[in-house]
Task: structure prediction
Amino acid sequence: MIFAGVQDPIALFLLIGVVALIFGYLYFRKQPEVDSDELPLQQVELKLKGIFSPDSVRLKQNKPVQMLVHRFDLEPADEIFEVSELELYELLPAAHTTVITFLPKQKGRFKMILGGEQEAGEMIIE
Result:
């Protein structure tokens, strides 16, 4: 006997089999895939060295955005970033990462401007 006091070894093996099946089902079942539309925050990462990389950003309307801008340029000491139609104005210090959060409320294509005059990329809100 495997366990002292067990009267019916067949019942013990059935019990172990049922527990193994339940464990196997819970462990190996397919997990549902998370749809990107269900995520509460859009995250975008941009690198800036003269121009943005990537030079185009796609976002969804009415969904909060967290944009990380890694600036590698050393000159000028501060660069002004703006998307005037969306009322985004941010100061980007040299050799620094800046976090910009906003809620895009209108659809369209918007120019990302550096220094008040240089077009550095495009923001597309769908």
The mean pLDDT is 84.
